[in-house]
Amino acid sequence: MKLIHKFFLAFFITNITLVGAMFVFIYLNFTTEFNHFVEKQEQKHLSEVKLHLTQFYAKANSWETIAYNNQLWRSIVDPKQQNNEDRATLDNPPPTLLWIELPGDLLKTGRRISLYNQHRQVVVGRNEINENPLIEPILLNNTIIGWIGLVPSKLAANSPAKAFLNAQLHNYIIITLLVIVLAFIMAIVLSKHLIKPIQQIVIATNELNKGNFTNRITPLSQDELGTLSNNFNELASTLQENQQMRFQWMSDTSHELRTPLTVLRSHLIAVQDGVFVADNKRISLLIDQVNNLNLIVDDLSQLAHSDTASLSYQFKPLNIAALLQRTLESYSARFTQCQLNIAPLHLDNSVNYQVYGDQERLQQLFINLLENTCRYTNQGGQVQISLKQVKQHIELTFSDSAPGVNKQDQTKLFDRFYRVEKSRSREYGGAGLGLTLCQQITETHKGSISLQDSPLGGLQVTLTLPQTG
C-alpha cells in the first residue's frame, strides 16, 4: 500500500469515526430532549383541558352536552384561540438541534384525550378507561366529577411526534452523508498535499541512485518535511562535491604519475636507441624521477592508511623539542640542497615541552611540513621555527619566505590533491597530500593545525598540541 493510500485511509477512517460518533450522540441527545419536551407539552395541555372541563362541568353540572356535541369537545381539547407554537416557544422552548421549525399542531394531543364520568364510563374517546396509559381525575371542590385519559405520543401508533423524529433522523442521515462525502474529498486533498513533498524526495533520491547529484528539492513547508528537503539538498551538494573531488583526484593522480613515467620512458628509449649514454648523470636523473614516483605513492599510501584507521599509534610522554631538534638535524642536508637558510630553533628553556603522542607519527608530521617548505620556497629563502607554551598547549610555528599563498588558497591547502601551482608541484614532486596527512595526525593527537601569512613573506604553519606534565 502506497503512502498516499495510508494517509487517505487514516484521514477518512478518522473522519468517518468522528462523524458517526457525533451523529449517534447528537441524535440520541435530540431524541431524549424531544421526548422530554413532548411530555411536558402534553402534560401542560392535559392540565389546561382539565381546567376547561372543570369550568364547563361547574356550569352544566353534567357531561351530556359534551357527549353529543363533538364540536364543543374539540373546542375544549384543541382550543383554536391559543397557538400551540407560541406556547412551545414561550413556555417550553423546543430542543435546539432541530433542522426545521417545530410545527404548532405537531403533537395533536387533543385527538388522544378521552373523557369519562365519575363512574369511569366513557363520555368521549376510547370505550375503556384502561386503554389509556395515563389517567387523571377531574376534581371540583375536592370531589371527583370525572376522569380524563391520555395516550402519550411516544406510545401512540402513527404518532406525529414519532413521524417528526423519523423526519429529523432522515435529515441527520442526509447531512451525515454529505459530511462523509466532504470528508472523502478532504482526505484526498490532504493526502495529496502531504504526499507531495515526500514524492519530491522519493524522485530526488532515485536521481541520486542514478548518479545525478545536481538535482535539488524546493522545500514546500517549514515543518519536518521541509527540514528533510533541506537536508537532502545538503546531502546532494556534498555528494556532488565528493564526486567532483573524486574525478579531480583521479585526474591529478594520473597527471602526477604520468609526468615522471613519461620522463623515464623517454630517457630509457633514448638510451636504448643510442641517443643518450647511460652515464652517471643520466642514471641520477632517472633515479630522481623514480624518487618522485615513490613520494607520490608514499603520500597516497599514508593517506589511505589514515582514512581506514590503519595507522598504528603508540602514545607515550615525549619531549617534542628534542624530537623536533633531531628531525631538523636529519633534514639539514635537504635544506642545504634547496639552498635554504634555517634559523636556529627558538626555545624557552624554562618550559617543559612534554606532550603525550606517538614519536614516529609526530616525526612524520614534522618531515611533511619541512618537505613542503623545501619544495615550495624559493632558493636562497629563509625558514624560521619556534616552539613556545601558550596556556596549557605547546605551539609550534614553521615560517618560510616567498612565495606566499593568498587567503583563498590557504583554506583549501588541507584538501587532498589541492595545489596552488600544479605545474610547480609536478616539477618538485608531491601530490598535494602532505598537509592533509598532517591534519589527520594532528587531530589524532587532539591538537590543531592552521595556516597564516608568514612575516617572512611566505606561509606560516601553526601547530598546537596539548601539554602534559
Instruction: Please state the average pLDDT score.
Output: 80
Give me the side-by-side strand order of the main sheet. Answer: 6-8-9-11-10
Poorly predicted regions are 81-90, 422-431
Radius of gyration of CA atoms, rounded to a whole number = 52 Å
Q: What is the count of distinct domains?
A: 3
Biggest beta sheet summary:
5 strands, mixed
- State the end-to-end CA separation: 65 Å
Give the DSSP E fraction (strand runs of 2 or more residues).
5-15%
Structural class: alpha+beta
Please provide the count of β strands. Answer: 11
Q: Give the SSE string.
A: HHHHEEEEHHHEHHEEHEEHHHEE
Helix content: 55-70%
Form type? rod-shaped
- Helix run count: 13
Write a structural description.
With 469 residues, this protein is of the alpha+beta class. The protein folds into three domains: 3-176, no CATH class; 224-291, Helix Hairpins, CATH 1.10.287; 312-466, 2-Layer Sandwich (Heat Shock Protein 90). Helices cover 56% and strands 14% of the residues. It is built from 13 helices and eleven strands. It has a five-stranded mixed sheet. Helix 8 packs across helix 10. The chain is rod-shaped. It starts with a helix and ends with a strand. Residues 81-90 and 422-431 have low confidence and may be disordered.
